[in-house]
From TrEMBL:
The lineage of its organism: Bacteria, Bacillati, Actinomycetota, Actinomycetes, Kitasatosporales. Transmembrane segments: none annotated. This is Tetratricopeptide repeat protein. Residues 11-23, 591-600 have a biased composition (Low complexity). Residues 1-10, 615-628 have a biased composition (Basic and acidic residues). PANTHER family: AAA+ ATPASE DOMAIN-CONTAINING PROTEIN-RELATED, ATP/GTP-BINDING PROTEIN-RELATED.
Amino acid sequence: MNGLPRERAPDAASAPTASPDRATGVRSEDDSPYDQGGADWTGLADAAWLAAARIGADRATGPAPDEPPHAEELPDTPGPLLEAVPDPSTRPEPDVVPGVTGLPGAPAYEREILTSVERTRTGPARLPGRGPRTVRRGPSPLARSLRGLGRRVPTGGRSALDEESTAEHGLTDGLWVPYFLPDRERAFDLVLLVDRAPTMPPWRGTVRQIADEAAHSGAFRDVRTVGVTLPPGAGEPALRWPGGRDGDPAELIDGRSSRLFLVVTDGLAPGWAGAGADRLLERLVSGGPTALVHLLPPYLRHRSSLFPFRAQLDAGGFGAPNRRFHCRPPLGAHDPVRPLPEPDDETVPVPVLSVRAGSFRAWADLVTGERGVRRMLPVVLAGAMAKGASAPGLRRPVVDGPRAAAAAVRRFRSLASPLARQLAGLLALAPMDFAVIEELRDLALPEAGPEHLAEVMMGGLIDWDTGTQDGPDFAGGVREALLAVSTRTQLARTVNLLAELRTGQGHGARLRAALHDPVRTALPGTEPGARPWLRIELAVLRALAGPYAGRAARVATRLTGPPADPPARPGETRAKPMKDIPNWEKLLPDSVVSPGGSVPPTTPTAADTSVPADDPARRAREEMKAKAPDAPFVRSGQPKIMGNVPPKNPNFTGRESLLAAVERQLAEDETTAVLPHALHGLGGVGKSQIAVEYVYRHSGDYNVIWWIPAEQESLILAALAELAAGLGLEVGPQANTAVPAVREALRTGKPFDNWLLVFDNAEDIDAVRSYFPNGGPGKIIVTSRNREWERVATPLSVDVFDREESIALLQRRARGLSTEDAGRLAEALGDLPLAVEQAGAWHAATGMPVAEYLQLLDERRPEILDLAPSPDYPVPVAAVWDISLGRLSAENPAARQLLQICACMAPEPIPLNMLRGGRNVQITPELDPVLRDPLLLARATRDLSKLSLVRLDHKAGTLQMHRLMQNVIVARLDPEERERMSNAAHLLLTTAKPGLPASPEQWPAYLGLLPHMIASDAVSSSDAWVRDLVFDMVTFLYYWGAHEAGADLTRRAWEAWSEQSAQEDLHVIRITKMLGFYLHHLGRIAEAAALSEQAMEVSRTAPIPEEELIDSMLQMAGSLRYRGDFHAARELSAEAFERSGDLYGPEDPTTLNAAHSYGITLRVNGDFRQAREIDEETVRQRQLLYGPTSGLTLNTLSALAADTREAGDFLAARVLQESTYQSYRTHFGPTNAATIRAALNLAICRRRAGFLEGAAELVEEILERFTTRYGAEYPETLGAALAAVVDRRIAGRLEDSRRLGRQTLDGYRDIFGEHHPYTLCAMVNVAATLRALGEVEEAERLDTVAGERLRADLGERHVYSLAAALGRANDHYARLDFAGALEADSATLPLLTEEVGEDHPFTLVCVANLSLDHRGLGHSTEADRLNTQAVEGLTRVLGEEHPWRTSARLHQRIEYDATVIPL
C-alpha cells in the first residue's frame, strides 16, 4: 500500500465497472494511446458459450444455437446485391477480408502484383518492412467496442423450442406439449461504404482491418462492403458492387431500419464538399444509424474536404436514426475557432469516427442507448456538406515553370511532417503506382504510415487529372524540385532501392544501369506502362546534370517523340546481361560530405578497362555509389559518414614518420576508454595538415569521421549539431538537444561505432573536453598550440620539416628550382612548413631568382622583429608574407585592403556572398569599385589565392585565411587603420544578415557569420545596422539552444552599448530586455529583475515607439511573476493589454502578445475563468492571422488547455491538449522545446483526467529531456520534476518521490527564493509524499509554513492557499486529530465554493474529505450525506472511473496537489 491508508485509489480490478461513462452521461472519443477496454459481461458470456460449445462438440450435430444465420436465411435481404461475410469457421485468412478485397476501383490503383519479372540478381524471399499480419489470438479493442451493437431482438416470425418450459410442464401434467419462444437474432446488419477516391489505396490495409474486426466481433448478422464514388460538384453519388456492377444508394435501404452504415473515407475527394455528399448521407441516415470513419488523423482533417465540428450528441433511443440525435456544442470543450452551427431542421448530424476503439465504442453507445445517453464525437451535418470547402491540396496545381514548382515544394515542406517530407523525396523517384509506392515505403521508410502518404497526396504537388492514360503524376517540374532538396547520396540510395523492388518490373534496375553507364545503357521504351519511368529517369538525369546531360536530351526526345527502339528486356542493356556490365553491382557506402568537397576513396577500386579513365560518366558514377540503409556495412574505401573535413592538400609532402606515429598511438588505446591524441607545436608547423592527411589516408578504417573546429565553443556546438543530422538522430536542430544526443550516440556506438573525431585548434582544454564522448568505441585527435594537452592526452610533438621535406615541397610548388637553391631557401626559412609553402607559391607566381628573394628576406627581418612577435608568431613566415603583401600593395591595392578586412574576421571560412553583398557599402575608394563589380572581385580573390594568402573553396563558396596570416596583417595596421578595417568587416557582415532568427532554415547562415562577428568584435560597433545584426544573432542563439553562449554575447553587447550610448537609446533598451530575458530563463532571477525594471523605467520616459513600451511592460510583468509578485504583475499586464487594444485594436500582433501575457498573469493569480475568456479570443485571432499550426497559435491553445483544466473541466482540457500536442509533434518535432512544454501540460491534464499511467510515463520522459537540455537547476526542469514528484507518489514510488521532491524544493529555493509561491507549492506537494511515508510531523511543518506565507502573499482565497489548507487538514487526519481536520476542512469548503464553484473537483475533494472527518468523530449521518454529495458530484464532472471518485466512494482520503503554472 502507498499513500495515506485512505488516500490510495483501488486498482482497476477492484473498481466498479457498472458504467463506462467518465462523466454523468458523457463520454468523449477515446483518442489516448491507452486502451481502457476490457472483458465485460458480454465478452465473458461469449467466452463461456464458446467453451461449452467446444466441450459438447462431440455431442452436437447441428449448428450452434447462437450461430448467426447466413444471408440466404435472412428475410428481406437482397442476397444478389450484397455479398455476405462467410461464417468465421470457413472464413479465409485474416489478410483476405470478404467484401474489401472485392472493392472495385480503377485498375491502376487496385491491382495486386502477384508475379514480377525475373530479378536481375538474387534477392531475399521477402523484402524488409511491416511483413504479414499475425493472426489475433483474442478479440481486438475495436472488435470489443463493436460488441455493444450486438444486441439480439425477436425475429418477428420464427420461433424456437423452449426446452425448459416443455420439460417443466411435461413433468407436471404429463402431456409433453412443446412450448415455443420467439427466436432472436442480431439486431443489425453492417454495410461499409468505402470511398473509391484515387487517394484511398494507401488505406486498403486499414479498411480491411475495420471489416475484419467487424466480422470477428460477432455483433452483426452480416458485414458487407460496397464502393462509393462522389463526383465533384452536383453529380450523383454512385455505388460499385462486388463484381463490378454499378448501383444507386437507394438499393441499400431495407425498409426496416435494421441496417447500420459506416462510410469509410480519407475525406480528400472534392465531392465531400458538394451536393452529392449531402444526397448520399441524407439517403443513408433515412435508412438507419449512419457514421463516417475519417481515416485521416484529427490534426490533418482541417486540410481535407471533410472537416468535422466538435459536438455533443444525445442518443435518440435504441436503433434510432441520426435525425433523432440531439446535437449541441460540447460543454466546456467547445471549439472557439470553429464552433458548431446552430441546429437546423434541414440538417442531420452524422458522427465522425476515428480508427480507434474508443471512437467506435462511443458510437455504439449512441446507437443502442436510450434517451439520456450522451457522448462527445465530431460530426458533419448532412444537408450542409455543400457549404464546405474542398481540400486545397488536391486542386490542380498551377505550376508554370521551375520557380513555381520550387515554390509548391516549399509550401508542401512548410506544412508537412518530417516523415512526409522524407517520403516525398522517395516518391519523386517512383511512379504513381501504389503497389510500387507501398513496397518502396516499406523498404526505405517503414516507420511512415498511410497518413504520411496522405500528406504527400494532399500537398498540392500532384496533378490528379493529367488527361493521359498514365493517370495521376507529379505536376510538371515538381519531381525536379523535390530532387533539388535531396543530396546526390540520397538520390543514389533511392535508385538502388528501386532496382530491388519486385513491383518495379525491372524498370528500377534499368535506371540504376543508366546511372552506371549513361552512354551504353539502352533507352527505355515508350509504351504506356513505361512512360512514367521514362519521366522519372529524365528528372534524375537533369538533377545530376554533368555527364548525364547527353542521355537526358535523348530521353527527353524519346518522351516527346514517337516510340523509337523497342524497350530492352528488364535486366539487360542492349541484350547484354547487366551482370556483365563492369562494376554494375559495386555499390559503395554513402557518406555525408562536408561543404569543402567530396571525399575521394583512399583505396582505389579495380580499373574499368572498358571505359576511358578520364570519362566523365565514370567519374560521376563513382560519386553516385551508395547502398540501401539496412544492408550490412562493408568497408570499401570511404566512411559511412564524413563531414566538415577540409579539402585534401595536393602539395602535402613528407611527414611519414609523424603519420605513422599518429596511427600507432591511436591503435594502442582501448576503444572503450578513449583518450585524445594532441598534435601541438609552434604555429605554422602543419598540425592541422597532418590531421587532414591522416583522415584521408585512413578514411577506410572508420565508419564515421567528423572534423570539429574548436577555437570557439559555438563552432563545436554547430559541428556536433550537424553531426546529429548526419547520424540520422531523431532530434531537432537545436544545439542543446542535438549535442547531448550526439555524445550519447557516440558513447554507445549506436547507430555507428568505430568513429573518429578531430578537434582542430582546441586551445581551451576544459571547454573542449566537455564535449568528448566518454568511453565510446572511437578515437579523438586534437590539434592545438597549448602544450597543457600533455596532461590529459598522449602527446605527439610536431616540429619543422626535415631539410629533405622542405626541398621536396619547394620543388613541387616551383618547378625547375634546383636542389641547391631550394636548400638555401629552406635554410633561410628555418624549414618552417608554412613559410616553405608560402615561398614556393611566391616563386611559382613570380619566378624571382632565389638570391633576390633571400635579399628581400634579410631586408624584412629587422622590420618584422620590431613588432615584438610572440612564440606563436614565427619570424620566417611573417617575413615571407610581408614580401607577398608588398607586391600585392603595388599591383592590386584593393586586394590588399580586402585581405586586411578578412584579417579582422575569424580564421574560419568566409562566405563569398558576404563580399558580393558589399556593393551597397562604402569603405575605401580603391575597394568600393571591386565590391560592386563581380569580375573585379573575382580577380582580387584569385590574386590572393595565387600568392597562397587565402585558400579558396569554390564548391563551398568560401575563402579562408591562416590565423598566422591574420596576425601578421593586423600587427602591421596602425590603430586608426585597424578600426577602419574592422568597421568595414562589420558592414560586410550586415549585408549577409539572414532572415528570421527563429526560423531553422536560417540557422546555418547565422552559424556561418557567428565566428566572424565575434572575432571582429561587432558588439562594440555603434552602427545601427550592425547592432541590429548583433540583436538578431543573440536571438538566434536562444532559439538554437546555446543559452549560455547567447547570454554571454548579450552581456558583452549590453556593456558595450551602454558605455557608448545613453540609456534612452532604443538599441540599449532592447539589449537590456534581451539580457533580462536570458537571465530569467537561466534562473538568475534577481539580476534579471533589475534589468527589466531598468528597461521599464527608461521606456516610460524615453521617446521610443509605443509598441516598444508595451513590450517593456510585458517583460516587466514577466519579471514580477518570476519574483512572485503576482498582484503587481496583474496590474501591469492589464495596463499593457488595455493600452495595446486601444492603440492597435484586438487583431494586431502587439495586442495578441499582450493578451497572451495577460492570460499567464491571470492564471498565476488563480483567475482561470477570465484567463480562459481572453485565451479563447486570442486563439481565434491568432488562428486567423497566423493559421492553426503556427507556434503562436499552438502556444495559446496550450494555455487555453491549462485554463480549462484549472477551471475544473479536466476531461475537456485533456482532449484539447492531446490535439495541441499532436500538432506540436507534427509541425515542430518531438524534441522541440515548445513541444516538450506542451507535453508537460498534457501530462498534468492526463493526471487530472484520471489517465495516471499515461501521465506518469510522459512526465518521466519530459524530465529527462529538460534535464539533458538545460540541466537540473532550470525553472522548467523544476516544473517537470515537481510533476514527477506527484506522479511517483500516486504510483507508490514513495522513496523516489521524496528524494526527487527534496531536490526540487532545494532547486526552487536556490532559484526563486524561500518565499516564492512556487517554492511554497513545492513544499505542499513534498508534504503529501511525507504524509504517505508516515512522516507526518515534517509534513505538517511544511504545510504550516507554506500555508501561512501563501495566505499572506496571495490571500486566503488563492487556489495555492486553499491547496495548502487542504494539506493541513490531511495532516490532522493522519494524526487521527479528526476535530482538527474537521475545523480545517470546514473553513476551506466555503472559500472553495465561492472561489471556484461547488462543482469544481477541488471543492468536491474537500467535501469528500470533510465526510471522513465527520465519520472519524462518529457523525455517521452527516458523513453519509456529504459522501453521497461528493460521489455524485465527482461522477458528474469526472466520470465513474476517475480515481478521486473511486476513493470517495470507498471512503479514502484524497490529496489535491498544487500545480505550478509556466511563467
